[in-house]
Fold:
Amino acid sequence: MINKVRLGDVCILEKASKLNANEGEDFGDFPFFTSGAKIKRTNIAQYDGDFMIMGNGGKATIFHYVGKCSCTSHCIVISAKITCNIRYIYWFLRSNMQIVEEGFKGSGLKNISKEYIKNIEIPLPTIEVQKEIVSILDQSSKLVEKKKEQIDLMNKMVKDLFVDMFGDPMINDKGFVKVRLSELCINITDGTHNPPEFVKEGIPFLFVTNLTNDNIDFETKYYISNETYDKMVSKLNILKGDILLSVVGSYGRSAIVETDDKFYFQRHIGFIKPNREKVISGYLNSFFQSYYGQFQFDNVAKGVAQKTINLSELRNILIIVPPIELQNEFAEKVAKIEKEKEKMKKSLAKYEILHESLMQRSFDY
Structure:
């Protein structure tokens, strides 16, 4: 029988920071934790030790860090007493995130209180068993991260191949023709501007959060009927090889449609149907993700709270256009890389399932 203890009895909540999130930088000697998932940098070291760092505003985030660091006033820094391994506490909470999420209260920006955190019950075996659990989960986590690194390396290979074959599009050092995007496409538009009537089951309706570079996530809670779809799709005919591009908020993320299944999407997603006699989807998608493509998106995005790329601006984006034969050669090479990447993604999924299973079993007292 494993005893349960209050987190506040085995951990110390360190003195709170007074720094704001905007004091974090892109560069610096030490990590700067915020209440979000992104870790910034700073030259200020407020803390030095072995800590668990929890964001206390918005969504639940938990980090573990050993060494010198800083954080915002919206973080709670926690260290362990001698009977407890702080990384054990970290892994317990990571495997039971619902416990942390239930502590966030409020009508606007939800927050979690120190009192709630102190009162979280932790199963506490001997320090030796804690260390053993930490060792197992750390090893499992490293396998997952290694697979992710391999996938990132594959993504870098595509970008390196693009530059190798087409040069630097910023300066167009290979002297290719440069034209507006509208001259290469049959249609450039966006998703529906009117929120549709949703149904429990049917055709997936996607939001901008469903779109990341090279990936369209069809997992959604929102569906539309066939009747609604038929009315909407008259504006465009979605086919394999078309490209989706985020144009509002986190703009500039693109992915090629790789399915014949029906789906539709909101106006925050742009729709691009290339003229395949002029440009290959694989080339155009890589161009969007290139430094020059992102540079142009940054230049035309307007707005303060939520930047937007207007369709008129999108249509005028300048595209370097190599000969179609060279584009096809690029697409063939990318297809081979993507094939290997898909194998790695499947392997990653297996490692992630194993890691999740180990986390649950480690705390199944």
